[in-house]
Amino acid sequence: MLRIWLPILMLVGAEGAAKPPKLTVFIAVDALGSDTLQRIRPRLSDGLARLLSEGAYFPNARYEYAETVTSPGHTTLITGANPSRHGIVANQILDRATGDRLPAFTDPSHPLVGAPQAKDAATSPHEILAETLSDHLRVSTQNRGHTVAISTKARGAIPMAGRLGQAWWFNDAAGGFISSAFYVQELPGWVKSFNDRNLLASYFHKSWTPIRPAAEYVGKNVGQFAVDRLNLGRAFPHPLTGGRSTPGPEANQALQSTPYQDQILVQFAIAALEANRLGGHDAPDLLAISFSATDYVFHAYGPYSWEMQDVLLQLDRSIGIRSGPALWNPGRQRLFQPKGDRRSQAGCGNRWSRHGRLALPSAPGGAGGRPRGPESR
Predict the structure, then answer these.
(1) I need a labelling partner for 133 at 20 to 30 A (CA). Which of 98, 163, 183, 329 fits?
(2) How many of the other CB atoms lie within 10 Å of CB of 15?
């Protein structure tokens, strides 16, 4: 069965079309189908509401391939090419030489920077066969334009950064944002300073509770598809300890399935914007942000759950004028492109079929090569 994405494309604030924007903010919202967005739209009042009301809205756009998951999805969004062209066809690949199942973007020659090493970590865009928006901006401006990509997931940040940008993503074990040796040799001072703030610890003794009165949520507190994932429980309020007595990787992982991870991501994006002077150069800059909490929440609780409603209500506020004012400065052009993957469509819940796909490895020197093996998920 062919699954589709229903993305929204919003281009706002482009005054004086002949003059390029100083900064474009590209936002991807993982697993956000337009059906889910349409249901919540009347209750939005801040960032998402402004983009919907002031931007161009395309709820019925679709992509012509089936495996619409994070790795191929973000690569398609940032290249404008289908997986058959850009080479990233699934979240995981099967290495025929070893029989190991590996994440897309795995590259042992470029270790993690800022986190414990893992042989199966996603670390570089070497398998992407098409030019990304980030790469094109860098080349066309002779490296005067700057690009920074940020996500909770490595497979969200890496394709958006491409080969010539910066990629930063969250790591459970490190409890902060990291990158790889493909992009940096050590964490810069602004990333170290942000990680040293240890914002995650401030959530450990809290619970995820709805931001609106119960009467404003549709359906039941415990949804049909709810599961107790990462000791968060099946219904509000959700404890954020990860089942542990002290902060650590389990609690860090649990926080990713809540809107609070999106709030931390916005704060990191603002830190990146300021540290890299994005929008302050003589050529256009690009800041790409991928929000992942919607994807984790969908899998644990389903598309009609209170949790899915709440994570979008809180994202609306997180990227709004009061919470993220640096993203809304005059003269900045915002490109907002939520991505709904195959598992976010209404009626799917957290059940999905298994598909086999081939993954394209890199040949010596980083170019593409013949298929390496199937992937089923």
Answers:
(1) 329
(2) 9
